[in-house]
Amino acid sequence: MSRANFLENLRKALAGFSKRDVDDIIADYEEYFREAQAAGRDELAVAKALGAPRQLARQLRVDARVQAWETHRSPSTLAGMALSITGVGLLNLLMIGPIFGLLSVIVALFVCAFATFCAGLGLMLASVPSLGLHRFIRVDVFGTDVSNPSAMAAVGFALVLGGVLWFAVNAKVSRWIGNAFARYLRFNGRLLGVDR
Amino acid sequence: MKLDLQPGMLDMCVLAMLERQDSFAFEIASTLVQRANWPEGQLYPLLRRMMHAGWISEYLVETDDHHRRKYFRIEYKGRDALGDMRQGRPTLAETIHQVVWGEVLA
Question: Least buried of A52, A119, A152, A169, by fewest C-beta within 10 Å?
Fold first, then answer.
């Protein structure tokens, strides 16, 4: 691959990066070619040694997503980080299962927390007789109706509290998982399928 | 003889070079390529990651023939990281000596 081809392919593969980043990266590789050729190296050999532009772009993209997560920890940057490794190489194909399994577990835990919160809220509302909700929301334990307002209010309050607490724990846990994932990705050249 | 460099050792080598003096990508690469079988393409992604981690910083210099050259400089965080790496890793010579002669160098 010639120098011009390499730079053109790299620029294409960097679609999605900001113009500033693309220009900076391209300028870096232009500089590298210039210095290498000034030192007497053949441009084809340099292009070969640098590796496939698409592979380079994928690695830069993974790094950028990891950085986005580290700058702003949110569900979307976590998902972005997980998605970015999908195209990276055969090795990661094996990683996709466990990673998306883990993401599903996180989502399921959040859904549970939300459901618990909603159930508690429902019970608390039903405990207010004037709202009339007690006609639809009843609590029976093994066929015995125990829908007394104060018990429903107490249990409802406990569930709401439990839901919020669970949510906080999940947030903490998924943050921790995301950080571990980022650390794993950051300096792991082999995971990124860098061919030599 | 050329050594096979493990991916994890790259950051240590690059930091150690920058600790001695500021340098630019091709200079770093040539130094390492002469001594190790090293995938050159990894250098820029590695440098960018180190930049983000705050280990190094960059500045542009115009060469005599009016071209851009990006220099890298090691920062305090990078020196700290390098110190930790040096502490945590026996030298290759120590490891080889241990394996071949079954003893540890003083």
Answer: A169
